[in-house]
Task: structure prediction
Amino acid sequence: MATAYRPKVVIVGTGLVGATFGYALLASGLTPEIILIDVNRARAEGEAMDLNHAMPFHRPINIRTGDYPDCAGAAVVVIAAGAAQKPGETRLQLAQRNAEVFRQIVPQVARHAPDTILLIATNPVDPLTYLAWRLSGFPPQRVIGAGTILDTARLRYLLGARYDVDPRSVHAYIVGEHGDSEVALWSSAAIAGMSLQDFCRLTGHTCTEEEEREIFAQVRDAAYHIIELKGATYYAIASGLERIVESILRDQNTVLSVSGLLKDCYGVSDLCLSLPMVINREGISRVLCVPMSQAEQERFRASAQVVRSVVDGLEVPEVAY
Ligand code: NAD
Result:
């Protein structure tokens, strides 16, 4: 018999990203129950206490530490466990270290919560989403990587600031790897249904390729700058994770740029990479292989190659799909 749908959310890895996401989730009122799991039990206990003490300012829910059997019945299990990027270290260099962590975590989650949706935040997020899919044996729809949700938010924030509009009124996507090879889809970027060029003409702004290059560099290198300044990034990714979980729990069919298994998009297959995807209670209900200019298609394929080379270096179990 299928497990009853209960919007319990489990967070595995209660460091800066996991705990900040826990706070965003508590404030959102989306779930009646949050379970915190960490190999560092004391850290999880401390975060559970701190979050519980915020509850009188929000609404009563059940927040507690747990272990893998507590994943049973969870609607979503968010994995933010593992080492964070060191100054100067690329996301891809993290792969081997965090793959080991995933080999400890994912099979246990899959055993206790065979119907859950896995949401991966740990970097490098694309290869690890692929590894999590293979380790879990889940259908690909139920394994989602945070992917470029954060990079897309950074692009929208910067474009909104440049053109004096609410970033929520900017429609523009970063696709491909969450990392140095990511791709900005300028050809489909829009404000009020207009291309950026039309918007600039109408409003008297400038809109040059040089400006596009500058903004893209700020998006691509944002994590390096923030890590230099304060050691880690966590608020924006926590908000992005909360937005993905909202779309799942409320069955919203929201289009979000997240990482999922691709099957022939511009020649890219059998790899987890970001594209705009429709997210609902089933997980990824559709992967949107959106129109791209010729140059964007080439960059997208090159980005896939970067992720492929990392995946090829990991020991990934076989799976039939
Ligand atoms: P952190 O060091 O603060 O927290 C990591 C936590 O994982 C620690 O509490 C640690 O005890 C726990 N952990 C390690 N091994 C574990 C295991 N085997 N089982 C359970 N828990 C385990 O790091 P952080 O700043 O929270 O970052 C976490 C991850 O998120 C990193 O890989 C980081 O690069 C990534 N991240 C991703 C994005 C994104 O956009 N996807 C953004 C920021 C950070």
Observations:
- The chain is about 40% helix and 20% strand.
